[in-house]
Amino acid sequence: VKVTSEPCNGTFPDGFKWGIATSAYQVEGAWNESGKSRHIWDKYTHDGLAYNHDRGDKAGDSYHHLEEDVQLVKKLHVNYYRFSISWTRIIPHPTKQSKGVNNAGIDYYNRLINELIKNDIEPFVTIYHWDLPLSLQEELGGWNSSDVIDHYVRYADVLFNNFGDRVKHWLTFNEPWVICWMGYGSAEYAPSVKEPIFTPYRCGHNILKAHAETYHLYKRKYFKTQQGKVGITLNTDNMHPKEEKNASHKAAAERAQQFNLGWFANPIFGTGDYPEVMKEYIMKKSRKLKLLPRLPTFNDEEKQKLKGSADFLGLNQYTTSLVEPYTTDVIGYPGDVDVKLSHDPKWKTSGSTWLFVTPWGFREVLNWIKREYNNVRVYITENGITDNNGTLNDVFRVRYYREYIHNLLRAVRDDGCNVQGYIAWCLLDTFEWSSGNHEKFGLYQVDFSDPNRKRTAKKSAGYYSRIVRDNGFKNDEELCTREKEVS
Ligand code: PNW
């Protein structure tokens, strides 16, 4: 990859949208208030599994800072606030006969949505950002069980019914890859199931079905009156061949991307089924080890239902991995992929072990998506970076946003990628899952030692609001890196 520098200038097409994101468990707090029941992350943190035994019980306490936080969003001049709804506030006891809807939960999100609209901010709502009701995990087996699908669809129905008059952008799931691999394979995330051989694939299968059912439910029952859009958010690293001219490295990078993004994107935005290379590799290894088939199959009706079951692709994009082929007998995800991932020691690191600064990779993966899925409509639903101290003078993070957004600009302007909007991650320093309060992604610092959780704007908040106001870069004196050759 040849990298050169150029002035960081140019603006996005008219109508390009900007936003800022959070998710319920990461910012709300109020973990046991107003009828909310426990979810799998409450259990995970109460079991002491997060860094430093941190919990999200209070987090940034957004639940009690509703008006204040909407004003923080407003200061950024963005079009969208992306947030998630907490299932356990809406249907606290899904497995009980009554399965009642909790009015206090409905009221809270009504207040939030109304406050946003009053301030000219559009709600961009994630239905499921990882906080599965604990009863569905403990009594049914969570996403390892197809029984959860109906529960999910019913929950989504309640949301469309109550909020769909005002919410016009829905995301069914945030990052099925993280849910199924880190939650049900590697056990790094809740519900910490460590079974990489069958469970991640079953989880993925159930999530895809729940997604498709929900999409069609919306089209059937709500679209005519509500006229909204339903998408899904997927995450992926840009998968770059370690040796760019080496054919087997290129094939390995392609395979890694099919096993990562393609796992969920191909059924929805491609053929209606899993990628061929994924089916082939999983089968090959199952046979060799005389295992039962592991990747579940879709019948024709299910494929039809899946194909085209989203109005847009939400993309969470942070970093790049270098990929080379690596034959291993390790079975399951990710051993089935037969690749080794690494990082260039020259890449700048961050406050997160997995996150390396590779702005050119953002542009590269957007071009991969354009080619692979017929230039599908994309919203960037997350992009951002951590440091560990949450410093207010966060020039390192400003540089990250500048370079990534500049590469997005090139993808849109020069390459014709169909990206309609960019939503930065995230509004506040959050509870960052297994890393606790340790990794700071916020544009606003939160003082976690202060019972009032004082918020203070970082330099990045001002910088981002300027980009939003200018719809790109005007008179930005800094240089941006530009990658000249995409191999
Ligand atoms: C996303 N990885 O998670 C989530 O959607 C957010 O809730 C989270 O705060 C944000 O990214 C930053 O971590 C990811 O290991 C977690 O590749 C881990 C990975 C990717 C995304």
List the helices and strands and how they pair.
Elements: E1 3-7, E2 10-11, E3 17-21, H1 24-27, H2 40-46, H3 66-75, E4 80-84, H4 87-90, H5 103-118, E5 122-126, H6 134-140, H7 147-163, E6 169-174, H8 176-183, H9 199-226, E7 229-235, E8 238-241, H10 247-269, H11 276-288, H12 300-306, E9 313-316, E10 320-325, E11 339-342, H13 359-372, E12 378-382, H14 395-413, E13 419-425, E14 444-446, E15 455-457, H15 459-470, E16 472-473, E17 479-483
Parallel strand pairs: 3-4, 3-13, 4-5, 5-6, 6-7, 7-9, 8-10, 9-12, 12-13
Antiparallel strand pairs: 1-17, 2-16, 10-11, 14-15
Helix pairs in contact: 7-9, 8-9, 13-14, 14-15
Bound molecules: 4-nitrophenyl beta-D-glucopyranoside.
The site of 4-nitrophenyl beta-D-glucopyranoside has 12 residues, from loops.
